[in-house]
Amino acid sequence: MDLIWEGLRQAFWLIVTLDPEVLGISLLSLKISGTATLISLFFGVSGGTALALSRFPGRPIVVSLVNTGMGVPPVVVGLFVSILLWRSGPLGALGLLYTPTAMVIAQTVIATPIVMGISLAAIQNLPRKLRYQILALGATRAQMVWLLVKEARLPLLAAVMAGFGGVISEIGASIMVGGNIKGYSRVLTTATVMETSRGNFEVAIALSIILLLLAFAINAFLTHVQQRERPR
After folding, report:
1. pTM of whole model > 0.85?
2. Burial (Cβ within 10 Å: 0-12, 13-18, ≥19) of residue 20
3. Domains of the chain from N-terminus onward
4. Which of 6, 29, 37, 95 could be joined to 188 by an S-S link, Cβ 3.0–4.6 Å?
């Protein structure tokens, strides 16, 4: 119990004093996960919408792959991204391994199926006749898609929260492709694992609390936007 209270005390002290190292780690965590979420939002929403509105042979297999991707372990993603970016790999010449960019790539791969799967379900849940009514009023197909996305904006915000939550909390891929380099690619999750392995449980608890507060702040803001726009 004393260990927990010491962790809480250190977390409070690190936050109020704006410890430079912890602040840098927190900002990098937010930057990497935020960027990955935004990229996955583009690919996930557009891909999920296209999949929901299209019919083609093998579509159930594609949907199954998307749903499977929602549960792929981050370490598996980290493995294949590492192979791609390895010095002798297909993209090794880019020199991206053990950089924040590599972490963004890995986290984008993790978040995209999550956003795509929820977007697919959100668009499919809209009344089928709605798209025909929109087209009958003279809208183009692009306008129809945009109006459907606006209609499904509340569950799509849930997709954003799920995608962000999935990457801000992951650890396996971040260590494998980022290397946990101090001052360069160390984020809150990798720092927590490192401090735990060293036996610095108070610092690990403090970093975990900061991670939870950061995730809560972002999700509280998105939840506020979602609930404010909820139909009454």
Report:
1. yes
2. exposed
3. 2-14+21-228 (1.10.3720.10)
4. 29
